[in-house]
Amino acid sequence: MAEAHAAGEQVAARVWTVRLDAAGRGLTAVKVDCSRAACTPQRLDSAAQGRTFAAAHLRAHLRAAGGPRREAACACRAAGCQGHAESGGRGSAGPVWRCGGAVVLAVLTDPMGRWWRAWECCARCAAVHPAARVVATAPEAAPVGAVDETPVPAGVPGVGAGAPLFSAPSPAAASGGAPAGGDRLPAPRAAAAGPRTPKRSGKIAQRHVPHDLRPTVLRDELIELGDAFRAYQSAAEPDLAGLAELHERKARAFTTWADVTGDGSLRAEARRAEQAAATALAQHAQRTGEGASGVTRLLTGPNQWEHARAVLAHARDHAPVPGPEARLVVLMLTLRSACGGSGNVTGLDVKGWPLTDPEQVLQSLVDAGWLRLPGTVSDLLASGSDNPTRVGVDSLLAPDGVSGVLGLGKTTRAKLSGWAQKTLGERTLRKKKLPAAGRLLALACAAHSSADGRLGAVGRGLGLDALAALCAVDTSEIGALVEQLTAAEWFSDVSLTDTHLMGGLSERVLPLGCPVPAGTGTEAASGTGSGGA
After folding, report:
1. Does one domain contain both 308 and 252?
2. Model pLDDT for residues 369-390, shown as the tens digit of each residue
3. What is the rounded distance in angstroms from the CA atom of residue 124 to the CA atom of residue 310?
4. Sign of the CA dihedral with 489 first, then 495, 499, and 504 last
5. Which of 39-43, 119-123, 155-159, 473-477 has the highest mean pLDDT?
């Protein structure tokens, strides 16, 4: 650079910086700002649009600039020149950096596509930045008296012309044309080239939400749900109604996610979320005392209630011997052996069941091949808690011979077995000496009532045929059994029609109930199955 320039003939160098920033937290829109005061900020819908607009705007500035000026001072210091940063500077013992070479227009792009900068500087300082590209070089100084005949491209404003406003970029800039006197703007590194998807990601239910998941509304919903669940966990007070709403949203979002990706585990997670929502609502109802749901139930949630009804239906459909006593034994042994096809039973357990001849009922199941014992039936009846009998029910084994066909975990199996034992052995039923059929009817009504104890999902009653199939009796016998249960104060009010049992459970019985979800109606106990009397 000529010494005359350093002697006071230099003019201030020009610098343009265009930045790309998020328009707000959690938004995909971006804001583009330019360092020129005349340029107003611009908001665009996506980062890809923002990068395209920012690059075009910088090109427009370069076109308007008319190329570098040979009398311009080097702007490297203002731009944070690496060469000056490494030099000793004034008062330092190290070498002092000196600018040199022709004045150039250098352009530097952030590898991540967040900002673009162009500035007038000397060739030496431009070379210090490996990623910088020189797009134009000022012509050499003309001899004294010579006329500068450097051609000016048509349509390009003269030196010092103002840059175009964001609200009205020049046609050349919008079309992505190259700046005057140079090639084209340097592109970001290969990894960042082209349109970039905003890398917004998150985590929910121990799963990472991919930043490129489409549709974006699904991705955003999953991320927001993850944040909402974490916020709920850190809250000082529980909000069960709000938690139920979060689980309902999660169920819908995971169902859509499964549809998009074809991942079956996501659909299973959606079903678990639906059950969690129902459980949270039930707990909310218990806490607030809405209706009769304020009672504390022996089985605490919809998932366990569904399993209870499923075991009743399984005993109905797979009992190998007719009659209510055999049905009751099949039900109880199914609950004892549900996890792996085997379980422990003592003689005291069997004697607590309302059986007229326990040995005969057990032997009939052994003869039918349904029940497998390590010894004789007499040995089972004589066993105590210190030496229980390990019984086997092979039909409860899945094809792999390990997993139970009912899908019950150990904790759920134990809870269901305790619920059935307590319901069948309820104090008043024992005192009235109700037979096996009456106790099975009591169990069926408790398992198919509404939240406030009305029979049926919404108090529409239970079908007589369905109840008879669950209890292994004839439909005509239901009336007599209902009278026995009424005398035992099992019902608060009850009536029989030609097809249905109407009424509700007494307040004393409500803790044993398993509310049926609204909308299932009497179908919850429908079907005669193969186990009818």
Report:
1. no
2. 999 999 999 999 999 989 999 9
3. 82
4. negative
5. 473-477
Q: Which amino acid is at 357?
A: D
> How many independent structural domains does the chain possess?
3
Q: Tell me, what amino acid is at 454?
A: R
Identify the three-state secondary structure at position 502: strand
Amino acid at 117: R
> Closest Cα to residue 58, out of 21, 119, 16?
16
**What does the DSSP assignment read for 145-173?**
T--------TT---TTPPPPPTTS--HHH
* Residue with token string 């996890």: 339
CA distances 286 to 235, 244, 280, 450, Å, are 21, 14, 10, 14
pLDDT category of residue 105 using cuts at 50, 70 and 90: confident
Q: Backbone phi, then psi, for 275, in 5-degree steps?
A: -65, -40
Q: 41 with 71: CB under 8 angstroms?
A: no
Q: Say whether both 349 and 387 belong to one domain.
A: yes
pTM for the whole structure: 0.49
Pairing label, strands 115-122, 15-22: antiparallel
Residues 435 and 499 in one domain: yes
Which phi-psi region, left, alpha or beta, contains residue 107 (left: φ > 0; alpha: ψ -120 to 50)? beta
Do 127 and 235 share a domain, yes or no? Answer: no
Q: What SS3 class is residue 367?
A: helix
- pLDDT tens-digit series, residues 284-328: 765 654 544 457 888 888 888 899 999 999 999 999 999 999 999
Instruction: Evaluate whether 112 touches 156 at the Cβ level (below 8 Å).
Output: no
Residue 436 parent element (H or E): helix 436-447
Scanning 289-346, the segments in alpha helix (DSSP H) are 302-318, 324-337
DSSP string, 459-524: S--EEHHHHHHHHTS-GGGHHHHHHHHHHTT-EEEEEE-SSEEEEEE-TTTGGG--BPPTT-GGGG
Q: Of 450, 448, 452, which Cα lies nearest the Cα of 462?
A: 448
CA 137 to centroid of chain Cα atoms = 56
Enclosing domain of residue 311: 302-525
Query: Shortest CA distance to 131 belongs to which of 195, 196, 201, 79?
Result: 79
Q: Peptide bond before 215: cis, by omega within 30 degrees of 0? A: yes
- Bigger pLDDT: 79 vs 136: 136
